[in-house]
């Protein structure tokens, strides 16, 4: 029998993994961004998904053989589109700043990723609007969106406290219209991850018939969705390797002067970005550029970061199995948990040091509201199961 309390716990663990994964990357020395992102990505999108699916599920290759072609296709395509959403997230930050940019992109991601799947399946009116438990879950989604809005307000409040010179440095190309359009596109595309998981429901049903425990039924779907995400990220990183002439970094410790300037636009999705900002603010990886790259350490730290990134969705699929008929609410829980733990990282790493009283109150309100949203969603799922 599903256990929503356990499901919320799994989603919190996933949020903690997402909020923490970037920290090992800050210990990578001498590599351009595209190099360590792609190395870590092999573990995030290929090695970890396949390894854990092979270990935890039954007859993985046979399950894929029996899976309907449309389910495989849409899961993979939505993974590609999720990756495309990541391409524009960095631009959203460029034009709106961290606070407002996160609020716009994360708001769209949370709303679309949560509500579109049940609407598409034709159960939104009957199972969500037509039941008390469904309305409670919907209330929790609304509270989560309010929490995301508070997170954005806290970021905007902090940015307003900066001097004019600091503002120009932090948001050099502020453009509200362009930023909102890009944030909307990025948020909707990034929510495609949730669509991909929903498209994989037939794969989950097949793996269960092969004897896979219920808790691990989502792992085969992750293999397909993340393969799509890998496709987008691989093409972009290789393009940057070619453009920035950093491809040699995979094979030799010697650093060429042209590569020490770093590599290109950071490619992230809304679910990744808060953790990077937390790690960046703490100054991880800062200091003089080495003359040689520590190859073994770089590969190990990238592997650790990539594997940690994957664990957010490992726990996500586990949490989804515990949410009963309102499993679509898992996306809200995931987004809320990411922001909760990213904010806590920011507090621990003194990102909000020197912020004014109003900003600190907004940060505290963000945490309270987002925790409250997870409680409401979890309780709504509990009532749905009891009924």
Quick recap of the structure?
Helix content is 73%, strand content 0%. With 387 residues, the protein is an all-alpha fold. The protein has one domain (4-386).
Taken together, the total number of domains comes to 1
Which percent range describes the beta-strand content? under 5%
User: What class do helices, strands and sheet pairing give?
Assistant: mainly alpha
Shape: globular
Major beta sheet summary: none
Q: How far is the N terminus from the C terminus?
A: 13 Å
Helices and strands, in order, run as HHHHHHHHHHHHHHHH
Mean pLDDT: 82
Give the uncertain stretches in residue-range form.
Answer: 259-265, 281-285
- SS elements, strand count: 0
Rg computed from alpha carbons, rounded to a whole number of angstroms: 21 Å
Number of helices: 16
Helix content: over 70%
Explain how this protein is built.
The protein has helices at 4-20, 33-56, 60-66, 69-96, 98-120, 124-129, 132-160, 164-170, 176-190, 192-199, 201-209, 219-244, 273-281, 295-320, 330-348, 357-386. The protein has 16 helices and no strands. By secondary structure, it is an all-alpha fold. The chain has one domain (4-386). It is globular. Helix 4 (69-96) crosses helix 12 (219-244).
